[in-house]
Specification:
Layout: E1 2-8, H1 14-17, E2 20-28, E3 31-41, E4 46-47, E5 50-51, H2 57-81, H3 87-94
Length: 98
């Protein structure tokens, strides 16, 4: 079973550093992998799984939705094709090196 979820401040650094990172967590057979979205926000700018109280909130939420969709689509493709879900492969789909 594979699940995907958007996670805020997994390492609990927002209180000390001022901002927390937003990541996509992919869980495969009870093993979690985390993929950075490159988005960092303050604790008060995160509510109900969305960026709020920022002028660029709609842009950041769209970016998060796109990254989530890419990860989810790739995980589903792996299932469909009978491949193992690989953290490096998922990260390469989100952040391809050119």
């Amino acid at each position: 079973m594979i699940t995907t979820k958007i996670i805020y401040d997994r390492k609990k650094r927002a209180k000390t550093e001022g901002t927390g990172t937003i990541e996509v967590r992919v869980t495969v057979a009870r093993r979690a992998i985390y993929i950075s979205t490159g988005v960092r926000v303050r604790e008060k700018e995160w509510a109900a799984g969305m960026v709020v109280n920022r002028p660029d909130a709609h842009v950041l939420n769209e970016r998060l939705a796109i990254i989530y969709e890419i990860v989810d689509r790739e995980a589903n493709r792996c299932i469909r094709d009978g491949e193992s879900v690989n953290a490096d492969a998922l990260k390469a789909k989100v952040w391809p090196v050119k």
